[in-house]
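Box 4.2: Ligand-aware structure prediction
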Amino acid sequence: MLSIKDLHASINGKEILKGVNLEIKPGEVHAIMGPNGAGKSTLAAVLAGRELFEVTKGEVIFEGKDLLDLAPEDRAREGIFLGFQYPIEIPGVSTVNFMKTAVNEHRKYKGLEPLKASDFLKLMRDKKALVEIDSKLTNRSVNEGFSGGEKKKNEIFQMAMLEPKLAILDETDSGLDIDALRVVANGVNKLKTPENSTIVITHYQRLLDYIVPDVVHVLFDGRIVKTAGKELALELEAKGYDWIKEELVK
Amino acid sequence: MSIDTINNDFLDLFKQGKSLLDDKSSKFMNTKREEAFEQFKKLGVPTLANENYKYTNLVPVFDHPYTVDLQYRTVMGDLNKLFYCDVPELDTNLVLLSNGWYYNQNRKLDIPEGVIVCSLQEAAEKHSEIFEKHYGKYAKPNEEGLVALNTALAKDGIFIYVPKNVVVEKPIQVINLLRSDRDLMATQRNLVVVEENAQVKLIFCDHTLTEHKYLSNTVSEINVAKNAIFDLYTIQNQHLNAAILNSVFIRQEANSNVLSNILSLYGGIIRNNHYTIFDGEHCENNTYGMYLMDRNQHVDNFTFADHAKPNCVSNEHFKGVMGDEATAAFTGKIHVRRDAQKTEAYQRNNNLLLSNDAVINTKPQLVIDADDVKCSHGATVGQMDDDALFYLRARGIHEEEARMMLMFAFAHEIIEKIRIDALKDRIDELVEKRLRGKISKCSTCAIACHQ
Ligand SMILES: Nc1ncnc2c1ncn2[C@@H]1O[C@H](COP(=O)(O)OP(=O)(O)O)[C@@H](O)[C@H]1O
Ligand SMILES: [Mg+2]
């Protein structure tokens, strides 16, 4: 599904990603862990097409297409979804209008007619129930005045609406209490199919109790320095990241 | 042509046209006219040297051989037929003006008993008591050259009177049709008197029907008495050849509530002077403005909130979306006088720049002579928020559409203050079209009326 080869990216001349390699097959859940500043969000942003970062080297193939050639909106329509670490507030843009536009642009890309108003509302209702998000929130402007947890729920709601092939969830667990964490994880799990894949970026192993990864990677200083099964997450939880640093020095 | 030539031409016009100017105008008006003329002699048309007109050069605006109608010109055809409003939900009392003159065949209005809507000329004669109590009392011909010029040349416009305790449910919509077979300078003078505890909503729109060059110099005086509630919507949507100079003077008495919303959608040159004086306690005033300018369009909003009495709240917010080589200026004056304790005065001006060549000048001017007040002001000039843009695009929304959504969201904050739902929807629609670039030239009025 996704193949990243020797990906380098920089911002203002400062290299952040220093040769990332990653293979993801359909249906797999990959966790990417790593200390603050390692480049996890940068990797996610580069995959989603954030122009702020300059890709200086490497390639990314998604479903046979050269992802780096596509505009962010086309990547989304091809099935990439980025759940933001810090979802932004957009006053004046209603959530309903936002989602309607997004859903219909996805449909147009696939050669489908726009959804009828009633079908759209039904879709909204179903997906809201799935992530237990309140109508009070979806009736507002995008993320405006939402708490941290509500913003994260809203990301999963949008993911549910757009049904991506590859979801990249950037610290979706941070700022969530245990109940919200369970809701969010449940939502992600319910949206899981044997075909679609997920990249879960997280700091804590806590989330991985709910969303069980097939593979765990450690991203450190712009490179993936360790890849193993889900037990790696537990080890990181117990020992922190320092031992990896030491291992690297050796 | 120099400014002196322009001013001298007006002096000649005044002297030569004196008998036509005085004809059919009441004695009271003509006395004010004389006084204003003397003031105009001193002031002249404001130039860049005038601090308040630093950003709008009126010399090229006035430097043109316009025709000036000193008498009512018979309108060819039936304007009522020529013109109708196609927004069925927007149920208003439609009043037509032709080049600033009250149309002599306006339809009968659906207004409560005692409410007067008529031409200024008629009001000066038939309702002289009310007229003379208010006419020339709020506008400042001694300070403003344009007001002096207007008062000197004023012949007609609209007069509205709402008696005590009367609520006019249906908004009054004044459509000024600019329609001429030659380049024209129009002078319009309006007087609105809202008595104690009365309520009325007024919509002003200018509508250019022909492509000739226009200069319109309008002055409106509005008195809002105790406990009255008054809404004023000014919708400016003219063609690029039109210069709109629009001065509004509002006086608020105790406990009155005024909402003014100036929506500048299109036009060559627009200058708004918006004065509010709080002449009683516990008044509330909300003044909003939105301007969408591109090409070489120019808009200059000048506001003055004069807090003369304690315990009033004024809140002002202007927002602009500026593209191409458009220029905009905003000057917000707030004067809190010594006795006006517990005043709250807020002011904001936010601009969204879509091009590097657009220019914004924004300038707050706060003079605060009282000590127990809450005042704030803030101005921003910025580009579109890249993070927001990326967020929308990351959900599959095309860049163009995403930009549209953000621009629209920016403008919507002002539109949503409109207290007439049908008008709000209509303006939403119109602004969206405007932002999408669908109105390349202004053949459509803001209220989408058709010929
Ligand atoms: N917009 C930016 N401008 C400059 N530096 C940035 C920007 N975004 C991220 N960085 C830098 O890139 C590095 C990686 O950041 P990030 O990808 O957010 O790390 P992580 O998500 O792993 O905590 C950090 O050193 C950070 O300071
Ligand atoms: Mg991060």
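In the box above, the bound molecule is magnesium ion. The longest strand of chain A covers residues 14-24.
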